[in-house]
Specification:
The structure holds two protein chains of two kinds. By secondary structure, chain A is an alpha/beta fold. Chain A has one domain (13-123): STAS domain (Transcription Regulator spoIIAA, 2-Layer Sandwich). Chain A is built from four helices and seven strands. Chain A has helices spanning 36-51, 70-85, 97-105, 118-123; strands at residues 15-20, 23-28, 32-33, 57-61, 67-68, 89-93, 113-115. A five-stranded mixed beta sheet of chain A has the order 1-2-4-6-7. In chain A, helix 1 packs parallel to helix 2 (70-85). The longest helix of chain A has 16 residues, at 36-51. By secondary structure, chain B is α+β, with helices and mostly antiparallel strands. Chain B has a single domain (4-148), classed as 2-Layer Sandwich (Heat Shock Protein 90), CATH 3.30.565.10. Helices cover 33% and strands 22% of the residues of chain B. Chain B has four helices and five strands, in the order H-E-H-H-E-E-H-E-E. In chain B, strands 1-2-3-5-4 form a five-stranded antiparallel beta sheet. In chain B, helix 2 (29-45) runs antiparallel to helix 3. Chain B is globular, with a radius of gyration of 15 Å. Classes of the chains: A alpha/beta, B alpha+beta.
Chain lengths: 125, 157
């Protein structure tokens, strides 16, 4: 897979997107957000929600995510910047304790708006 | 390949690893993934504590990405050499790339206020947090990491 240029790979959807009121709730299809190429594609799909679909209130639900690497954190930071630039808002929720520790170590737990559950997170907008 | 640091690191000579490998792979993410899966499989088989497995996986991912992306500059003609040893109470791994190396002291603190919003630069910090020990060679193109398992009686990290 990694020997093919990105453009020739089938771009399966890495995100499950649903609208709840004016908040867009995003779930990740992949349990493990690893691998530079995969993260690159996930990043593009997330940025597309803002740039192409004009969405402004994004709630990322990490319920399905068992594992992620620092490159994924980088994409979240970029997404946050994009949303801030257009007056939007990013909230994260359902992060399991092991993954949450990664946010804590890198001091990103205070940087992002992180809520425990989706219900509480929806109120955070 | 002589694995001087990994083989002599804090371990008596008569203790043998339960799993060991010395592999050279091309600079390819799929190849690295194969080795990562192999290591994870061995750790699960030994019933190593879940948090230790998570820690090793994360540190391995960061170290391998660093080797392939920064060390080998994503050049598929370059190689990554991975050597690992799994003992009853610890895991040791050495990852070396063909690059010119770097000075780990040159990496800015990603948690400093001015760096917090940078999209990169956290890999080394995560490796150091999750592993018991992280040591670079002089040149900076080889890293050796160890994890002393949580379940061992000595109570180390």
């Amino acid at each position: 897979m990694s020997s093919q240029p990105l453009s020739s790979q089938p771009r399966r959807r890495r995100l499950e997107v649903e609208q709840i009121g004016d908040v867009t709730v995003v779930n990740f299809v992949d349990r493990k957000i690893l691998d530079e190429q995969n993260i690159q594609i996930i990043g593009e799909q997330l940025f597309g929600l803002v740039d192409n679909d004009g969405l402004r209130k994004l709630l990322l639900n990490f319920g399905n995510v068992e594992y992620l690497s620092s490159a994924a954190l980088g994409k979240l930071i970029t997404l946050n910047k994009k949303l801030q630039a257009v007056g939007g808002r990013l909230v994260l929720c359902n992060i399991d304790p092991q993954i949450y520790e990664v946010f804590e170590i890198t001091r990103l737990d205070k940087f992002f708006n992180i809520q425990k559950e989706e219900q509480a997170a929806l109120q955070a907008f | 390949m002589p694995l001087t640091v990994v083989d002599t690191m804090n371990h008596p000579r008569d203790v043998r690893p339960v799993a060991a490998a010395d592999i050279t792979i091309p600079n390819d993410v799929a190849e690295a993934r194969r080795i990562q899966d192999e290591i994870e499989h061995h750790l699960h088989t030994r019933h190593i504590h879940e948090h230790d497995i998570f820690s090793i996986k994360l540190a391995l991912e960061e170290a391998l990405i660093n080797a392939m992306k920064h060390g080998n500059q994503m050049d598929r003609n370059k190689k990554v050499r991975i050597s690992y040893r799994i003992f009853a109470d610890r895991f040791d791994v050495q990852i070396a790339d063909d690059g010119d190396g770097f000075d780990p002291n040159d990496v800015p603190d990603p948690t400093a206020f001015e760096n917090l919003e940078r999209p990169s630069g956290r890999g080394l910090m995560l490796m150091r947090h999750y592993m018991t020990e992280v040591v670079f060679n002089q040149r900076g193109n080889s890293v050796t990491m160890s994890k002393v398992f949580r379940s061992s009686d000595n109570g180390k990290k």
